[in-house]
Design brief:
Layout (H helix, E strand, L loop, with lengths): L2 H8 L3 H9 L7 E2 L6 E2 L2 H15 L4 H8 L6 H32 L10 H18 L3 H33 L7 H17 L5 H13 L1 H7 L6 H14 L1
Antiparallel strand pairs: 1-2
Length: 241
């Protein structure tokens, strides 16, 4: 099927599919050389389902790429573990919903519901187990050889976002302007897709680090002096909304 049909079926954007192709996570099954049209097949759909399961479990794209590069891993074992992790996530969400109901009805405040240690520990154990059992394969070694180039591209794209912030600053935009706030969302999404789940709380901490840590500040200010302060201010506004 054409990329637009595949995107509609799987619930992702065409832009996302282009990006997955760029980083080698999900390539089209066929590209028409005459017009550049991308086509996807049943195997593409199966791989996309695996990707979406891992995304639902808050794995970064880098982690997903690693896991899917292993050869001959037991899909039944993987499915069983994914089901367990999703069950933990479901239980936590049910606790949060119950807490909201208690606040609504009785005004009770519960803080222990935000503890996500069990899920995170189980997820880390799962990653370690998968790598230990299936990581020593030719496919994974090939992935490792390619991953450096992929990672370099990721960091280049990441840095280009700060370049966009710099351009907005130099063109007289305010950190609160919609275009700048949309750029903060782009930054947050990029971190989530490539490194780790970037919640507003984490993003807020990053915004402070960009100006308090001289290494980050100097690196961001390579684009133009004041860029780090501009980004930090934009993030602060974004996280308050």
């Amino acid at each position: 099927m054409l990329i637009k049909d595949f995107a509609k079926l799987t619930g992702v954007t065409v832009r996302t599919l282009h990006y997955y192709d760029k980083i080698g996570l999900l390539k089209p099954s066929f590209i028409e050389t005459s017009n550049g049209y991308r086509f996807y097949d049943e195997k593409s759909l199966e791989r996309m389902q695996e990707i979406l399961f891992y995304r639902e479990l808050d794995f970064s794209l880098k982690n997903i790429s690693e896991i899917l590069s292993y050869e001959n891993y037991s899909k039944q074992d993987i499915i069983r573990e994914q089901k367990y992790l999703l069950t933990l996530k479901k239980q936590r969400l049910e606790k949060i919903i119950s807490a909201l109901e208690a606040i609504e009805q009785k005004g009770e405040i519960k803080m222990d519901i935000f503890d996500n240690t069990q899920f995170e520990n189980a997820k880390n154990d799962f990653k370690d187990e998968v790598k230990e059992r299936w990581g020593n394969t030719s496919a994974y070694k090939e992935y490792q050889a390619k991953s450096k180039d992929i990672l370099n591209n990721v960091y280049e794209d990441f840095d280009s976002i700060f370049g966009e912030f710099s351009n907005h600053m130099k063109n007289g935009f305010s950190p609160s302007d919609n275009d700048v706030q949309n750029l903060v969302k782009k930054l947050q999404n990029y971190i989530t897709e490539n490194f780790y789940t970037c919640t507003n709380e984490i993003l807020s901490g990053l915004g402070q680090m960009y100006v308090c840590d001289e290494r980050f500040k100097n690196n961001i200010d390579r684009h133009a002096k004041g860029t780090a302060e501009f980004v930090s201010g934009a993030i602060k506004i974004f996280c308050k909304n």
